[in-house]
Amino acid sequence: MNFGVRGQPPRGSFACGTRIVFATCRPTNSNNNRPTRLRKTLNKVLQPTGYRIGKLKELPPQAAPLETFHSFKYLRHNARRLEHLASLQLPLAGKTVLEVGAGTGDHSHFFLDRGCPMLITEARADNLQIIQQRYPQARVQALDMERPQLSSAEKFDIVYCYGLLYHLADPARALEFMAQRCREMLLLETCVSFGDDLQIHLCDEDPAEPSQAVSGRGCRPTRPWIFTELRRHFPFVYLPRTQPWHEEFPLDWSKSMAGLVRAVFIGSRQRLGNPSLINHVPAKQVRH
Ligand SMILES: C[S@@+](CC[C@H](N)C(=O)[O-])C[C@H]1O[C@@H](n2cnc3c(N)ncnc32)[C@H](O)[C@@H]1O
Question: Pocket residues for ligand 1 (CB within 6 Å)?
């Protein structure tokens, strides 16, 4: 059972020297933890402190990671993104890889099966536990990309950041960290906003969702913002000519559309003579 005090009570809520506070909880499998019963139990414990919970609001249950990551919607999304990545024919086999925001590791096998030694990272303990069970041979570590820090100064040939950047409130800091750790290529897929301006468009997210921002704050940067930021760290920056076969990846960037909108970027230390890549932000793309 999680519970937390939500803010300070208004002045009028002081009664007989007792501070009345408000709290939230999430249900568990145990029936003993119904809000009214829990509130009474907690108020007995809190009595000597002078605090009393006036209202305990039950929030929707927290989703188990695999309910989210193995929903049909998510599995289809992964398939479309990974087949697109494979279509770019980048030289990835055998490279060392740092994966950030790995979720439950549904992309990690793309690299492990190509003989890549990996460090798989993620901020949520529940997700990390699943990754560890799935890939006992891989190195798995906690890494919060809002305050990115690794215990060693290790660098990796490839940094793989799919589905994470838009769950961060400070995407510039995360890009800087990933560039510092990257010897060859940064592979980035993220939600973006339509527009030609340089904006990150901060937004709120639900931290109770195992796939959303741990901090509760995310962003939807424009493609030019990401491109410009990547150019600060990499001499060569590319977007694919193609987009994955999925409706969240638009082809015509002059017509904005509702819902999540995504793009793929590559930051590289070397010039890539790859016909699938272009070195500017395109107005139009095609399916691969
Ligand atoms: C949408 S999922 C993406 C999972 C996978 N990479 C993919 O593309 O399908 C976002 C992941 O980022 C993780 N995440 C959220 N905030 C994070 C943070 N500050 N640092 C690292 N990971 C974070 C979430 O726990 C979640 O597993």
Answer: 78, 101-103, 106-107, 122-124, 127, 143-146, 162-164, 167-168, 210-211, 213-215
Which candidate, 62, 131, 61, 71, places its Cα nearest to that of 101?
Answer: 131
Domain of 169, in residue numbers:
65-287
Q: What is the pLDDT of residues 53-75, one digit of tens each?
A: 887 766 655 679 999 999 999 99
**Residues 209, 78, 245, 184, Cα dihedral to 10°:** 110
18 alpha carbon – ligand 1 mean position (Å): 41
Among 43, 58, 73, the domain boundary falls at: 58
Same domain assignment for residues 52 and 80: no
38 shares its domain with 74? no
Q: How far is the CA of 103 from the centre of ligand 1 (A)?
A: 5
Cα separations in angstroms, 252 against 188, 244, 247 = 20, 13, 12
Each residue of 168-219: pLDDT tens digit?
A: 999 999 999 999 999 999 999 999 999 999 999 999 999 999 999 999 999 9
User: Ligand 1 pocket test: which of 167, 181, 189, 215 has the largest number of ligand atoms within 8 Å of its C-beta?
Assistant: 167
Q: Given 32, 58, 84, which residue is the final one in a domain?
A: 58
Q: At CA 132, angle to CA 29 and CA 137, rounded to 5?
A: 160
Instruction: For the chain, list residues with pLDDT below 70.
Output: 1-18, 22-34, 57-62
pTM for the predicted model, two decimal places = 0.83
